[in-house]
Amino acid sequence: xxxxxxxxxxxxxxxxxxxxxxxxxxxxxxxxxxxxxxxxxxxxxxxxxxxxxxxxxxxxxxxxxxxxxxxxxxxxxxxxxxxxxxxxxxxxxxxxxxxxxxxxxxxxxxxxxxxxxxxxxxxxxxxxxxxxxxxxxxxxxxxxxxxxxxxxxxxxxxxxxx
Length: 162
Prior knowledge:
Layout: E1 2-5, H1 11-24, H2 36-49, E2 53-58, E3 61-70, E4 80-87, H3 96-110, E5 115-121, H4 125-133, E6 137-148, E7 151-161
Pfam family, one: Acetyltransf_4
Organism: Pinibacter soli
Keywords: Acyltransferase, Transferase
């Protein structure tokens, strides 16, 4: 397994992973699958803003991806980013998220960021524990701010000060 910078050619597989998260998990509080055009715009925006997108690849298959991006749009937040990590359903539990996390932290440091924020569904213990292993601390809980699969969802915020 290798972790590398994503390319435009990876976008169909990235889209498949992301759409699975939308349709089958509470990792994304969205209801409708994205299109390839939407993923292309997302990727283009990441590159324009100077933010990395990484993929974990094995035997030509993208099994996960990660990125950082703006936390909030106002200038005063310019040293804070939010991270994202998604792993293909068939590859979960194999340590891929761990492989994708360190490059994000390293990239954030190179970009002179001060804080990485993670917004995680409060029931996603696996993701919360992963972030804690990398030094993230829980800093907030927003109760019932999301609604999906006929239930209210709580959102935890964790942060890593670099």
